[in-house]
Write a structure and sequence with these properties.
With 813 residues, the chain is an alpha+beta fold. The chain has 25 helices and 22 strands.
């Protein structure tokens, strides 16, 4: 321990004595350690930490697989049967997103909420902070209306008063009794809701129809010791039994179980692994750079090491001293790196939260601190070992005679190796960044099937009760259209439901008139549907290919008509004109005539659709919605709006117009369609930004490394350069000599980096679009830029060599 303390004291004195070296080396390490710590904190929060529920490894999501949809919402009657028949689950819960209008201070306020089954909070393991959650008798048709509030809403509206339990609150025009408060920290799938109501009270015909899905979803908690595979086998049997019991609705349907954590973060795992590899490369580059600095510094200390050896210090003793110095230096870099990680992580999460699930759970916790500590120690050993071994292998007699040139060749080769490795790693990162830039460029050129410029979408909550008639809802929506359309600058407006491009999708089964009617819904075709008004096509910028689009005259008093997209036409009417054909929708018990064909709209993303995604689309007149469906739209609809200029400023006038129509109406979820499209490739944009940042840092470190080595070589070859100039060497010859050294190292690194890139870029193939992982243009461009930077880094020492005075160079030797 005394020896260790002495080594630390001596190392600290040396670092203080060489402030320039210490600052440069520490900052280099801080960049590498900081980037690795920041990204590991994200990986830790998103992938490694369990979900914020007790025994979260036993939570699974339950999906229905219906008509080609791999992860479809569920039908509530089926959920009740699953809950009754399954034995693998300790409990099972259903939920459905629902928006509520809360009247406060005379004006409506939109609240985010869930309709939930009585077992929702118990399944997650969440206890109320006040009152109770729902009981089974609350979750039944005819039960008294009760509500559970979030802690945040309770604090904001009720001042956290315990007396609020038992008080009434009016939601969507109905009085509910507050029975419980849940913690304000509770979130589900990254969402924090304001209010929760029992789903079983919802006495809607469509919700109780086994053939209709209205957006309900389910999850469950497995019994201890039960695996997902075992539960899946049991649920497969449950699905087969339901198909026999209800062939018209459930034949051909299946159930899919997915771990809740996997369901939440599955899509982001490849992205994070690619970025983790990238920062690993950046760390290696930083280590190589600092190792080169230590090698160059060891020249000045060669006499010190020789004297130590002459006085009896063994090689192991000197290696321990040098490793103590490198680890201390790495610890300083780690401290600064931790600060950089904190700042960088917060900036990143604020800039791109939508691209990252569980982003609110990312923090610098104890595991991240331990990672930083271990990384700092390992880094100190990695970059300090090679210089330490080299420094202790000195020729005692030559060093004491102050010659020391006998080992310069080996040192030169070792430094050149470090630089080549830096160049190779930097090229890998630059190729990855270049491929992502090419990917985003290709995505920007994709036609989404609609024009997002000057278009905006939002949701509109309306005051409606169970007594609101369909005629009243239609009249309210027509008045809304007329008032908003009269606002200066508004070009087109349409209320809509069902699907919205890149926001929400809904599908309906159908069969074509003239074909045999399928025996069961599961045997029917399925298509994505949009409930629209006449202004939808212009508001969204959709192309009409032939026929006509939904018009104002297509209302509740006229025969049903629809438009189909060209995918629908090619799939179900190959070689035919679909206009005039008839399509039957059994869930609505209606038949529709096709009156037009429009271009296909990119529903899911700009690149590829998810597995099993439905490609065919049709557009259904909003005012011709069947009477049994109208209660579903009475409380809330979506709106798309197109303006002549930037749509954002006009939203103020839209809000004022809505307030004048009815102060209880609320606008929420406002998004420009440009933002919607940008969100669809947010994960790729995040990858590009981070890879580009890492690549630029790597290129900067590599250029500093090659500059340092070439400068060192020029200093070591002072006598040689002086003799060459004295014997008549021209400036061009000296320039070629110096640049040749740097170019050779850069070429070796470029070749190694290209070979490594050809292998490693396969890992990010799924992130690419419109460009191959082996794109020759990207590889060539990156190699050219990197070589240009490397040669530029060599130019400063080359100019210094040209300015040498041969007489002074020879005299200095």
């Amino acid at each position: 321990m005394n020896t260790l303390l002495a080594d630390l004291h001596y190392a600290l004195r040396l670092l203080i004595k060489s402030p320039a070296f210490t600052v440069i080396a520490a900052l280099t390490l801080a960049l590498g350690i900081g980037a690795n710590t920041a990204l590991f904190s994200v990986v830790n929060g998103v992938l490694l930490n369990p979900l914020a529920y007790p025994h979260s490894d036993r939570l699974v999501v339950i999906y229905a697989t219906i008509a080609g949809l791999d992860s479809a919402p569920i039908e509530y009657p089926n959920f009740l049967d699953w809950q009754r028949d399954s034995r693998s689950f300790a409990s099972m819960a259903a939920y459905r997103s629902e928006d509520y209008t809360f009247i406060g201070n005379g004006e409506g306020e939109r609240l985010d909420g869930y309709m939930i089954s009585a077992s929702f909070f118990d399944t997650l393991g969440i206890m109320p902070v006040l009152g109770r959650t729902f009981r089974v008798d609350d979750d039944q048709i005819g039960a008294a209306p009760v509500v559970v509030l979030s802690g945040g809403f309770w604090k904001r509206k009720f001042g956290s008063s315990p007396d609020s339990i038992g008080k009434p609150i009016t939601l969507n025009g109905s009085a509910y009794t507050i029975v419980g408060i849940i913690p304000d920290t509770f979130s589900f799938y990254g969402n924090r809701r304001d209010v929760y109501t029992p789903i079983g009270r919802w006495n809607d015909l469509s919700f109780r129809d086994r053939r209709v899905s209205v957006g309900a979803r389910a999850f469950g908690r497995l019994h201890p010791g039960v695996t997902v595979a075992q539960a899946q086998a049991e649920m497969d049997e449950v699905a087969r039994n339901l198909a026999v019991a209800y062939p018209e609705a459930d034949a051909g349907h299946s159930i899919k179980l997915v771990s809740m954590k996997e369901d939440l973060v599955g899509n982001v795992q490849p992205l994070l692994f690619v970025l983790l590899a990238a920062v690993g490369f950046l760390m290696l580059i930083a280590c190589a750079n600092v190792a080169n600095l230590l090698l160059a510094r060891s020249v000045a200390r060669s006499r010190e090491f020789a004297i130590r050896s002459a006085l009896g210090a063994g090689q192991a003793r000197m290696i321990r001293q040098l490793l103590t110095e490198s680890i201390l230096l790495s610890a300083v870099g780690g401290a600064f790196g931790l600060l950089l990680a904190y700042c960088g992580m917060n900036t990143l999460l604020k800039a791109l939260p939508a691209a990252l699930p569980r982003s609110n759970e990312v923090s610098l916790d104890s595991r991240v601190m331990l990672f930083t500590l271990v990384l700092s120690l390992v880094t100190g050993v990695i970059f300090g070992l090679a210089p330490a071994l080299k420094a202790t292998r000195t020729n005692l007699q030559e060093v004491l005679r102050q010659s020391g040139r006998g080992s310069s060749g080996f040192r030169h080769r070792l430094q050149g190796t470090f630089v080549a490795v830096e160049i190779a790693l930097a090229l890998v990162l630059l190729v990855g960044a270049g491929l992502m830039v090419r990917t985003l460029s290709a995505l920007w050129r994709v036609d989404p099937g609609f024009n997002p410029s000057h278009a905006i979408t939002f949701s509109l909550a309306m005051p409606a009760t169970s007594n609101t008639t369909s005629a009243e809802t239609r009249a309210r929506l027509r008045n809304f259209d007329d008032q908003v359309r009269s606002i200066p600058g508004v070009q087109a407006v349409s209320v809509t439901l069902g699907s919205r491009p890149m926001i929400h999708d809904s599908a309906l089964p159908f069969w074509i008139e003239g074909e045999p009617k399928p025996a069961h819904d599961s045997e029917m075709h399925a298509a994505t549907f949009f409930l629209v008004e006449s202004g939808f096509r212009q508001a969204m910028g959709i192309t009409l290919l032939r026929g006509r689009f939904v018009a104002d005259q297509d209302n509740e008093n006229t025969p049903l008509v629809i438009d189909v997209d060209d995918n629908f036409a090619r799939t179900y009417f190959p070689g035919q004109d679909p206009i005039g054909k008839h399509i039957n929708f059994t869930e609505f018990n209606v038949q529709a005539e096709v009156v037009g064909v429009v271009g296909h709209v990119k529903q899911y993303a700009l690149d590829t659709d998810p597995p099993g995604a439905i490609q065919a689309q049709f557009f259904y007149p909003f005012m011709q919605i069947p009477e049994k469906v109208m209660p579903l739209v009475a409380k809330s609809v979506a709106v798309v709006l197109r303006t002549h200029g930037d749509p954002t400023p006009i939203m103020g006038q839209v809000r004022e117009t809505v307030r004048q129509i009815d102060p209880r109406e609320v606008i929420y979820n406002v998004q420009t369609m440009d933002d919607v499209v940008a969100t669809s490739y947010a994960a790729r944009r995040l990858t590009m930004i981070l890879l580009t940042g890492f690549a630029l840092l790597a290129m900067m470190l590599a250029s500093v490394g090659i500059y340092g080595v070439v400068s060192y070589l020029v200093g070591q070859r002072t006598q040689e350069i002086g003799i060459r100039m004295a014997l008549g060497a021209q400036p061009r010859d000296i320039l070629v000599l110096v640049l040749g050294e740097g170019t050779k190292m850069a070429l070796i690194g470029a070749v190694l980096g290209t070979a490594a890139s050809l292998v490693l870029t396969r890992l990010m193939a799924k992130q690419l679009f419109g460009v191959s992982a082996h794109d020759p243009l990207t590889y060539t461009s990156v190699a050219f830029v990197l070589m240009l930077v490397a040669i530029s880094a060599c130019f400063v020492p080359a100019r210094r060599a040209l300015r040498m005075d041969p007489i002074n160079s020879l005299r200095s030797e």
